[in-house]
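dumping these here so i dont lose them again. two proteins, back to back, each one seq then structure tokens. dont judge the mess
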Amino acid sequence: MRFPGSSPRFLRRQPARFPGAKDGFAIFSFNGYRRSPVNICLPSQFIVLENIASSNAYAMENFDTLADASVIFAENQTAGRGRLGRKWHSPKGNIYASFVLKKYPFMPVYAAFAICLAGLKTMKTLAPSLDFQIKLPNDIICENRKTGGVLCEIRKSSAGETGIVAGIGLNINSTESDLLETGCHASSFFTLTGKEYPIADARTILAQNAFAYFSRDENKILSDFIGNCKMIGRQVAVSDGGNAVKGILDTILSDGSALVDIPGEGKRKFYSGDFLSV
């Protein structure tokens, strides 16, 4: 099967890679963002496209025709992007993935937390001796250098149902010269370990981790996210479009906001912004 505007490497169901998977993959029961029982979910389609603008753009454009729980991977992105439209340099050898969630039962922020945790676990699986952590709002870091980032977008289907495209990029085999193109302080599995990792295997590990986290309830996702966030309890500077505000990051609340204790003001919620340790 060929999708418009793409150069697919392959497209197939891969139940053998996911123990217990069956055809007709069951996913969530859903009604708006109402809480509902969470079932173990598995990918309905595992798609690798050779050269596209971005995996998120492809998923958003083809949202109606893609099956629920589809996973789209890009070998190469010509217009990769992150939060706030920032360019994501996307050479081959890394993970650029988007997960189509048409029936996610919780607030979209939990899908963002879940895919960030899945990326974190993936990097820890690839390099268990290294200290990977989460940096707000959506980065995975090691030794204070960025190794991954998340972009979640809301998409309404033609039938009016609200779904989510949960995107993630992980630096796996980027070289130092590749990372210089990112414009940020970045690292990769390769630069941290001196070894390359088979990208097909890394994709499978990420997909397994992602669907495991998508199947968890809100409380477990939030507690895991808080437990892996390096900034909790530390002084941070937060910029949400205005002047930077400094304070102690107290916790992440159930509505997805970051609670910062600001001297002379008290605790304030931040639903977005750039966070820096100071």
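---- next one ----
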Amino acid sequence: MRNNIPLREANTLGGVYRGPSRQDGGGSILKMFARRPLAAVFLFLGGIAHAEEIGDAERGEKIFRECAGCHEVGQGAKNRIGPQLNGIFGRKAASVGDDFFYSKGLQRAANDGLLWDLEHLDAYLENPKALVSGTRMSFRGLKDPQDRHDVLAYLRRFSDNPANIPEAEPTQLPAEVELPPEILAIVGDPEYGEYLASECQTCHQRDGSDQGIPAITRWPVEDFEIAMHAYKKKIRPHPVMQMMAGRLTDEEIATLAAYFKDLE
């Protein structure tokens, strides 16, 4: 119970969330609603959300750099490894658009009514897999409540009125490796990629699940290629990946990128 509201019908910003509670054995989505109060109160007045201060948005912008390797927010933000985060507050889960592939776990959560209100965003940032089992988000979470509140205060800037998003460049981090156009132009063969991927899949799960090792399915081709070339040039500090990437040609990297891009 929270404020005399059953866990299965706790109020959210956009209505009522009727997902399974812990008592129902509903481990696939929300494991707990009765969380400690946050330093923000959201009210709906005529369908418009008004918010008190959540945290320090300026500090949150700096902390968000941990997220910017996968997510963009701001004018012209695009879906990359993760979805763009403009207008995230009050948005239904798994609804950013048809051009982004969501995990089955997050799709189930959306079908059960999960909305990204303040409480659920806070829980997801703390431990993504505790809120949504099977999510592809390879992030251990922000354990410090103040860090989460500051990041959410920063993201709130891009949700109050998405039509008035600040005129700023998207927040994607600069590429670790600037690949020449001729390498990016290589078109990989997914069938050959399936053969090459057998060694990758001794660690990375084919179904995109994350068991301590980041999922690499459904990555945009360019992001996959940049990551592999960063390992090959020893810019990314992982000795096993450096060794594996160092054995691959440019064509083989493009082939693996083409294979994993559409792998379900």
